[in-house]
Amino acid sequence: MGKTKPAARPGTKQTGGYQADAIQVLKGLEAVRRRPAMYIGSVSGRGLHHLVYEVVDNAVDEALAGYCTKIDVTIHADNSITVLDNGRGIPVDVHKTEKKPGVEVALTVLHAGGKFDKNTYKVSGGLHGVGVSVVNALAEQLEVWVDRDGKRHHMVFTRGETKKKLTVTGKTKGTGTTVWFKPDSQIFTETRFDWGTLSNRLRELAFLNKGLAITLKDERKGQSKSETYHYKGGLAEFVKWLLGNRKPLHPKPITFESTKDGVEVEGAIQYDDGYNENTFSFVNNINTHEGGTHVTGFKAALTRTINEWAKKDGLLKREDFTLTGDDIREGLTCVLHVKVKDPQFEGQTKTKLGNSEVEGIVKSVVNEALGEFLDKHPSVARAIIQKAISAARAREAARKARELVRRKNALEAGLLPGKLADCSVTDPKLSELYLVEGDSAGGSAKQGRDRSFQAILPLRGKILNVQKARIDKILSNEEIRTIITAIGTGVGEDFKIDEARYHKIIIMTDADVDGAHIRTLLLTFFYKEMCALIEAGYVYIAQPPLYRVAKGREEFYAYDDKDRDQAMKRLGNGAESRGTVQIQRYKGLGEMNPDQLWKTTMDPATRTILKVEMEDAAQASVLFETLMGDAVEPRRRFIEENAKFVRNLDV
Predict the structure, then answer these.
(1) Which of 607, 579, 628, 521 is nearest to 244 (CA)?
(2) Among 218, 437, 616, 625, which one carries the catalytic annotation?
(3) Handedness of CA 271, 274, 279, 280 (dihedral sign)
(4) Distance of alpha carbon 285 from alpha carbon 251, whole angstroms
């Protein structure tokens, strides 16, 4: 009988030296600097801009509390940022337990702030953030000025550490806080602020906070400009801006605003003559991309109220169907904003409201306000209902068309004769689908691919512009049906992200005007009809080279003019002096042989592909309408304003 092995004791070889002194305790803001992505999402451009949002959110919370009317954001020449507000000013008296001025506590202690005291802020968007202390930790230097109690106070910090204690530098009549900071280049891979990114968020905040004036200034060389976002109409103006060039079904947005059981509900809706729904929801200024209980309550109330009004008015007597939520929301643009004292967020990106009590409150407010509006404006009510009835008829036609694109299992390839060259791997996480422009390029891609995990679907010509079409017409388009069937998720009410057959869907088009147009049409389709694919990070754009630069046996592939010039210089100065440098400009993927296409555009080890992301859905919606909608004048204006940024243009 063998001997029993004794249990391992602390300090013995079995523990591998793992003792209490091996456990690191990160004090103060050291944890933020060690793992910045845990607090701001990334150390690239997204995280960089998040720093500005954190400081601005504090000022907006002062506006929500009724103390701030203006916020100024300035991008300085050295890419540092100043945020100024005329709120109450961060407290400067000594904190009872921390024994430091309140402003120093707020800037050096994680999870410190007035947001956790319900007497200071009834509602707060900052609760969803990580606090200005994180900005301080990730800044090379930060300075703060506080105007309060008739005095101006000043403090300086370096990488989260107090460099200069709080001092009084003068007298002041007003109140407010000014924060200046320079992001730490030791932390961030990108330190240049993008005007458009900041502009979109600040405009959104101004729309959401009626009467608040937010100014964005840029002092950088060659980019000097200033814009002020100030909307007295609030959400009604937001809806008009979102509506863009689409033709409204009724002259003014329908608005509602009410407070019930401590929850403030505000919204604005406008119908247009198009077919797409654009609903944007917010909680305490936070964009709830994934919806939540407030959106559920709104949709239920909208469906119920309009159906009841239609039945009461006799508009559904001749129809053998009831109006669904999708029917009623066709052509709807809506902004819904609720303010909740203690919001509970859930979902993949923590942008889905989970408070169950909010659903009933929103439902009640919308039922009452919308019912009253429809009774007072029967002509508007009938126009909305007639549009919904038309949508219901189209839905039935779409249901029949949808049957053609349903795919019962991954092996049922009968609908794709000779088109889809599928891959042998069945795991979607490992599979890629290339949507390739033209049969010629499709042939090269089929030969050059790794058939174990790469599938090829050649597309013939330009697909339908879905921005201008209803779902039944969309589903009757052969190329679109082919794409839907190949991906396997279905569309509309049938859409199931879990049934996606590929987790990389790569758009590969020619580097010319036609290729750009086809790419835009495909992106419009994915954004409007299969948006969840973009949100899941499944949609990519291939980056084929523009040039092949060769001399003798050496060759380089260039993706822009700068790459081309560098390759020419390298080959011109090379050891092989005989022969001339040859430059081939690829205007089409079909000009590349299979080996070249694999090496430059399809080999995971050497290719460059761009993931399609949706930072701001509202801005994306407006841009798609400008580029793909019916109105010509806004598109012409957009081209004139942006022509100077064009890099590749066929002549």
Answers:
(1) 628
(2) 437
(3) negative
(4) 27
- The one catalytic residue in 194, 313, 450, 514 is 514
Which pLDDT value is given to residue 570?
85
Q: What mean pLDDT do residues 499-526 have?
A: 88
330 is written with which tokens?
């066709």
Of 95-99, 294-298, 412-416, the range with the lowest mean pLDDT is: 412-416
The band of 631, judged by pLDDT with boundaries at 50, 70 and 90, is low
Q: Which of 57, 61, 510, 625 is catalytic?
A: 510
Q: Does 450 qualify as catalytic in the annotation?
A: no
Q: Is 512 a catalytic residue?
A: yes
Sheet with 504-508: list strands edge to edge. Answer: 454-459, 432-437, 504-508, 539-542, 609-611
Percentage of the chain beyond pLDDT 90 is 47
> Tokens at residue 444, please?
């090269």
Q: 3-class DSSP state for residue 148?
A: strand
Active site residue 261: no
Confidence of residue 646 (pLDDT cuts 50, 70, 90): low
Residue 393 clears pLDDT 50, i.e. is over it: yes
* 603 annotated active-site: no
Q: Which of 148, 114, 128 is nearest to 54 (CA)?
A: 128
Please, what are the domains in the chain?
A: 30-229 (3.30.565.10), 235-402 (3.30.230.10), 428-544+611-621 (3.40.50.670), 552-585 (no CATH)
Of 30, 290, 499, 512, the active-site residue reads 512
pTM, rounded to two decimals: 0.71
